[in-house]
Description:
This protein is α/β, with parallel strands linked by helices. It is built from nine helices and eight strands.
Amino acid sequence: MRILVANVNTTQSMTDAIAESARAVASPGTEIVGITPRFGADSCEGNFESYLAAIAVMDAITSYPEPFDAVIQAGYGEHGREGLQELLEVPVVDITEAAASTAMYLGHKYSVVTTLDRTVPLIEDRLKLAGLDARCASVRASGLGVLELESDPERAVEAIVAQSLEAVERDHAEVICLGCGGMAELEEKVRAATGVPIVDGVRSAVTIAEGLVRMGLSTSKVRTYAQPREKKVIGWPFRGGAAG
Length: 244
């Protein structure tokens, strides 16, 4: 089984960290391939960058030259998962939804701890669109930019722990979701400090994607995610046709 894990930004070191985290939970025989878009922002922290990332990820995935069995979209918030579902025949798993759905098996309510405050509405909207908001106690911002998660990991852990404790004590969350692909591999430190289950979206998405592939399940094509209609599209950035 081959799973493509698509970073939504262009920072290669973050792609490498995300892929390594995915491999830590992948089953024997599952190949994890990290994908970095060829264009876009070096971090996604707002609507413009997220919409740009949606096009960039579709470009990167559809131009991947080898067969693959599933795709993980490793960005929190809105990054065009639905577009990939139209284009591909294989399962597409978004880490925002993967983390939240996993958290609901572990406690009554969950909270998401993310990066900057401006990203909170994007995550709230994605959870609402996915029907996962009813058991979300809160979405909290650590105040750190995405790239600061790499450049200052100690400060990142401190900020995430502080907001996680607030979510548990004030919002009555029983599970914490790490709200950024760049937070991969931080869960053990946050769990030790909070005493509650910590869910990483990338690792959750790997287990979900593997399960869908093993069950022979993929996106329904009868209506919402049917293949795009044949028509002339000017200036389309794709380098190749849809794979999978």
